[in-house]
Amino acid sequence: MTQVPTIALNNGVEIPQFGFGVFQVPPEDTAQVVRKAFDAGYRHIDTAQMYENEEGVGRAFADSGLSRDEVFITTKLGNDGHGHDAALRALDGSLARLGLEFVDLFLIHWPRPREGRYVETWQAFEKLAAEGKARSIGVSNFTVEHLERLAAETDTVPAVNQIELHPRFVQLELRDYHREHGIATEAWSPIGQGGDLLQDPTLTGLADKYGKSPAQVVLRWHVQLGNIVFPKSMRPERMRENIDVYDFELSDDDMQAVSALDTGSRTGPNPNTFG
Q1: HEC sequence for 33-53
Q2: Angle 27-39/54-64 helices, nearest 10 degrees?
Q3: Domain 6-194+222-233: which topology?
Q4: 263: helix, coil or strand?
Q5: What is the mean pLDDT of residues 85-92?
Q6: Where are the domains of the chain?
Q7: Has residue 83 got a pLDDT over 90?
Q8: What pTM was estimated for this model as a whole?
Q9: Which of 42, 51, 118, 177 is catalytic?
């Protein structure tokens, strides 16, 4: 079983660098899929209220025989949960569905800047952290502008910002901001949803060089950048392959070659307009 290192967040909580995401895993399949992920060595599960599969994650954990301190569970606030009191109620709902007394990380899923309530929502998150219902609190899909507003109007620096990040969208400016302010970078869509990215000659050439798959090369690139990743697969063999990236190291030149694939191209929504 692969030994996944942990990263210390800015509040001292340790998060496994490599996790398992359940975006688009059907609710009826989630418990079985997450159990397979546990069998493959994953101990960090990333879900969200919008995925509608928190119950399955909770069932998988309850059936796993693992202790609570062995598993790191993240969930995210749904877009209909913004506002102080609504956010407090929303986490209570997640805890009930997960069958947990606390989550390890609770994220604002999207900032919804046109609605203008993410600061108020973040103040509720600070309360949830103080109450112990969330060991760590963070955000997702926040830009530098959104983070700077939180810094100006609240007291807590997010532990994490979970953002779209892959070789065609490397987010250098935002990652630099994270590093300067002690915010961990989590990458969603870490392999750009697969597809033609994994056919790129740079990646296939590096895969041949290291005896790995193109996806493993990309995931290793993330690991060496210090990103936290949680690729999704419903196939046990792919789950095991994805996490098997700790037995090789990309050279500096090869790291730069992967980063040079950046085209500034998103696969997902723009945080300034989504929601």
Answers
A1: HHHHHHHCCCCEEECCHHHCC
A2: 40
A3: TIM Barrel (3.20.20)
A4: coil
A5: 98
A6: 6-194+222-233
A7: yes
A8: 0.97
A9: 51
